[in-house]
Amino acid sequence: MTDLFRMPGLVSSPVTVGGHFFRPPLPAGYVPRPHLCEHLLSGLDGRLLLISAPAGFGKSSLAIEFCEALPSHWQSLWLGLSERDSDPGRFLERVLSGLQQFFPQLGEEAMGLLRLRQRHQPFAFEEWLDSLLDELVLRLEPSRPVLVVVDDYHLAQGAVLDRCLQFFLNHLPPGLLLLVTSRQRPDWHLARLRLSRQLLELHEQDLRLNDAESAELLARQGARLTEEELHTLLQRSEGWVAGLRLWSLTAQEAQEGAGLLPMPHGGEGLIRDYLLEEVIERQPAEVQAFLFETASQERFCAELCDALRDSYDSAAILQHLQAHQVFLVPLDEQGKWFRYHHLFSDLLRSRPSAGLTQATSSLHLRACRWFSTQGLLDEAIEQALRAGQPDVAANLVQSLSEEQLLAEQNVATLLRWKMHLPDSLLASTPRLILLYSWALALACQLDAAQELLSQLQRFLPAASEAEQQGLLAQWLALSGVIARGRGETARAQQYCSEALGCLPEDRYGQRLMCLSSLANLAIVQGDLWRARTLNREALDSAQRVGNPLFEALAHYDRARALQARGEVQRALQEVQRGLLRLSGLSGPRQYAIRARLTLYEGFLLSLRLQPRQARERLLAGIVEARACRDISLLIGHCVLANMEGRAGDLSAAHAHLAEAERLMHIWDIPPIYYLAMITLCKCELWLLQGQTDLAGIWLSRLAQTYSGEKAAAAPEFHPYLPWHVDLQQARLERQRGQLAEAERRLRALIERARGTGGQLLQALALTQLTSLLLDTGAEQEARQYLAQALEASSGGGLLPFHELLVAQPDWLRGQLLGLPDSALRAALLAELPRACAAAPLSAEQNAAVVEALSSRELAVLQLIAQGCSNQEISERLFISLHTVKTHARHINSKLAVERRTQAVARAKALGLLA
């Protein structure tokens, strides 16, 4: 057993079974792994259960839990090994002695032979085993099988013992099963056993605790953590059981001493001691040296390690580390690239003097040269900066092309490099000026981009006319993109159009950026056919070049234009084509365009009323966009806020907007990019909460900014923002009872949308007008507008009908059933069972419902109607959160609905709410 189980506070006294054979109890605070035990149970019909993983991953604990979970007719024998058991004779003597507990007089003659043998003389172990197994076959009963557990096999492993157990496995009789735990994979013919389905293996990846199990283990240890602290701890520990247990002990000591709660670090405290004693000091000297020499690298392969160490044996040492499970994490399926476990690399980097023969800066410079020769410029630049060589880094940056930068758009990396480069270097050449101006523009640092771009004039006039024209064309393209970001529509159109006229074809990256900016402006101006033409030109150009990133960008722009025209289903297909084009990209690199496509896929799925799939894609897109420092994550947070608002969880909705605003501040993004979008989303939530005065103030300000002769240009990610402000103003007027004003506004909006071909906007206005007409009793006219809304939504958008699905489900069902079959009709009818949980109640049933609701439930219902979260209701009524949830369940049950929004609609229909 490992030392982990002998640490104070982790385990109680072991349970003795059959004299010298004992199975320790589970450690205190152990988190059960029932899914792993079930997996192991599926291997009871085989010959071998193998659990191999590095130190401290809970191999022995899992074996103990599995023994306790065995079916009642199974018997188990526990053999905990030590270094003394490396003698095959001693090991086999222990096995036979253990089996004699179940089968008295088994192998008495064989035992005598073992005890008479001389350790320095050869012994025919295979012949001895063959005789013992023949005798064992006669005694085994299929109804009482035996599991033999060999724990910590790595402590005794050797060539002779490996051959003995290989023979044992090859001739294992029915009714006998072997379970082995080891830090090192045994040198057995496992492929043959695997092929015959006689082997079940669990590896490090299987034994890693998932987030829920890690959180449970920490809770059992009494750890109290904030959500951020817990996230950091789980990320650092990577599911390593021993790391979490050791950290909890350190944290307890810190809290008792009123100190700060430490985060796990492999180079400190108990974790350091454990890794040193259990892992590093058990390795040969040459392997220890390798570990310290390669620890400075975030990822490495055999060739890179050879370059660092000026040797040729790195591949063999990596194989040794893999075979002995020394905290090596593979990064690809080919087994080429690796990294160390975070806590293990902490230890190696914190003790350079113990095993390092050359300076860390020298190692980074060697790595820089190697990455550069491999064409991996990003990593070469990183290594140069870590080596303290900014001049080398700047020269490497110049090797990047604008096309590569614009394709990948991972500006986070470039900006990180910029922090380490002196300003004098950034403006030392036209190439560095242009590269970093593009990086700053893509990062929305518009003033900084403009200021750096102005340094280009120092290199004019250029040495030749061709060079002069090239610099001017690039200046025009970049100035046009900066102008679009600032909302300077006329200037952006002028510069981008002029740049397209003089940029050579091989500057395809800058040409595509100009086409993208012009297409976006065309959507803002309602010229969807021009946007379509520009999208087509961009896609053709990207396909001629054959760059998947540029093709994906063209598919993204095309999808946005299709969505604006109401072609939601086609837009979704376009996004999926773009993602498919990127599917061939491998490695750990993050891409801004993939983040944008993923986020837009989530947005389009939300328009299709597929919240689960939409949320999954939006969250995935946010993660990648955040890694790339791409402001497209604004789309993700805003769409999620809208979805949470429709589902009734307004506190979660506001939290998404707060997180988006926080990141925009941290990234120093100009307000023009995000402030109006977030404010509009807040207005929608305030309207759901009934806060009409607050919504009215900000909607009025938005309308003043984005309407009239001097209207500001709509932000890049929300080109139809002024129209959506109008939609929310109409909703506000409806809530205030200003129905005539709302109707006029909606009719005007419908006509504007028809004039530009904006089918989705038209559908949104038509369905809101339909609801308004139903509220005023104009049902016949409402039918006409519903028919127009269905026609405008033929491209697959379902979101415009959300209000009707929730508030008027029975009327909508009746209208749909009278229409011819269509994909849209079928999709809306499929949504109705979820939107309408029950059939209409009779007058007697209505009266019974009103009578059944208690005064407290009515008070809760009124606050739900105002959009209050459960926490807010708890605070206002001075009742517990649990009581609020209980009242909410009772309300839904009595009103025969499933969701908060349905409860409010039903209560209004019954006259319970004004």
UniProtKB/TrEMBL annotation:
Transmembrane segments: none annotated. SMART domains: HTH_LUXR (SM00421). Keywords: Coiled coil, DNA-binding, Transcription, Transcription regulation. One of its GO terms (molecular function) is DNA binding. Residues 846-911 form the HTH luxR-type domain. InterPro entries: P-loop_NTPase, Sig_transdc_resp-reg_C-effctor, TPR-like_helical_dom_sf, TPR_MalT, Tscrpt_reg_LuxR_C, WH-like_DNA-bd_sf, WHD_MalT. CDD domains: LuxR_C_like (cd06170). It holds the Pfam family TPR_MalT. It comes from the Bacteria. PROSITE patterns: HTH_LUXR_1 (PS00622), HTH_LUXR_2 (PS50043). Residues 725-752 form a coiled coil. One of its GO terms (biological process) is regulation of DNA-templated transcription. Gene3D superfamilies: P-loop containing nucleotide triphosphate hydrolases, Tetratricopeptide repeat domain, Winged helix-like DNA-binding domain superfamily/Winged helix DNA-binding domain. This is Helix-turn-helix transcriptional regulator. It comes from Pseudomonas xionganensis.
